[in-house]
Design a protein that fits this description.
Bound molecules: ligand PBG
Number of helices: 11
Mean pLDDT: 97
């Protein structure tokens, strides 16, 4: 009881705070999303993501080397597909010489030790902007899963270290695992977007890839933001189906989900702090309303506190620079 108990004794100086701190953040926790486009000499800023760019393959080298030298161990890659290559089945996704496959090979050439996580979903390849095949305005599940498994195989063949399915079709983790095992890719892992919500915080990402759904929304496959227990069911199924890492997405508005998933499983858990979260912080900082770096670091610690082992973030390089002093 007060005055014998005084919590402020362990807050008094930076040194005592260091000693008693419950969580730490290091560059080893970071994963960096990378947007890739066709063409040469292209570095385009995404208008709703100030300071974030799409790169053509020839300009990737600097970006990858810089990230690796900052201590970032992994990139999560997305490609922007030209309109004329889009169709309902996302056929271009299976092209062994497609942009994604070339990007995987290129990054492993630039820095073989950089872990490459490749995005698996149909939306960037779909003429409808949906994560699966569309029929009569419905998103087909099993037919889409077959393509997703083929897509994963083609990324593994190109040299991806981890497949990262962001589509939310039922059963895709098991199907991808089976396909990889059958083809001898036992060592290629799966980071599942286990609890991915139908969120409006993805807006700037859809600008980045020109991948907004052409009709309707994604609520028939992505999760309802009213639900939390359902996230545990998703996570449990992914574990049974063979996922190696589970991911929760978005980040800050879903810290409770991150916490629950971490509590309920024995798996490495990643959080994806998404484009809209990045945009909000950048916009408020641009207006001078908040301190950019301090709010960014506070956010990163919130993820660690909630249980994240991995933080997939557009802030990766900025955070790494601060951590490296
Ligand atoms: C689509 C995908 C999305 C994001 C990652 N993969 C958008 C969506 O589901 O529409 C969003 C990431 C972000 O907003 O940063 N498969």
């Amino acid at each position: 009881m007060f005055p014998y108990v005084r919590n402020r004794r362990t807050r008094h100086t930076q040194q005592i705070r260091n000693l008693v701190s419950e969580n730490n953040l290091t560059v080893n926790d970071l994963m960096m999303p990378v947007f890739i486009i066709e063409g040469e000499g292209k570095k385009e800023e995404i208008h709703s993501m100030p300071g974030y760019f799409r790169y053509s393959l020839d300009l990737l080298e600097n970006e990858i080397k810089e990230a690796f030298s900052l201590g970032i161990n992994a990139v999560n890659i997305y490609t922007k597909v030209p309109d004329h290559l889009k169709d309902n089945k996302g056929s271009e996704a299976l092209n062994s010489d497609g942009l994604m496959q070339r990007a995987i090979r290129r990054i492993k050439e630039i820095e073989p030790q950089m872990l490459v996580f490749s995005d698996v979903a149909l939306d960037p390849f779909s003429s409808f902007g949906h994560d699966g095949i569309v029929e009569n305005n419905l998103i087909l599940n099993d037919e889409s899963v077959e393509i997703l498994a083929e897509m994963a195989l083609s990324h593994a063949r190109a040299g991806a270290d981890f497949i990262a399915p962001s589509d939310m079709m039922d059963g895709r983790i098991g199907a991808i695992r089976e396909k990889l095992e059958e083809n001898g890719f036992h060592h290629v892992g799966i980071m599942s977007y286990s609890a991915k919500y139908a969120s409006s915080f993805y807006g700037p990402f859809r600008d980045a890839l020109d991948s907004a759904p052409g009709f309707g929304d994604k609520k028939s496959y992505q999760m309802d933001f009213a639900n939390a227990r359902e996230a545990i069911r998703e996570a449990e199924l992914d574990v049974i189906e063979g996922a190696d890492i589970l991911m929760v997405k978005p980040g800050l508005p879903y810290l409770d989900i991150l916490y629950r998933v971490k509590e309920h499983t024995q798996m490495p858990v990643a959080v994806y702090t998404v484009s809209g979260e990045y945009a909000m912080l950048k916009a408020a900082a641009e207006k001078g309303w908040i301190d950019h770096d301090k709010c960014m670091m506070e956010t990163m610690f919130a993820f660690k506190r909630a249980g994240a082992d991995i933080i997939n973030t557009y802030f990766a390089k900025e955070v790494a620079r601060i951590l490296n002093g």
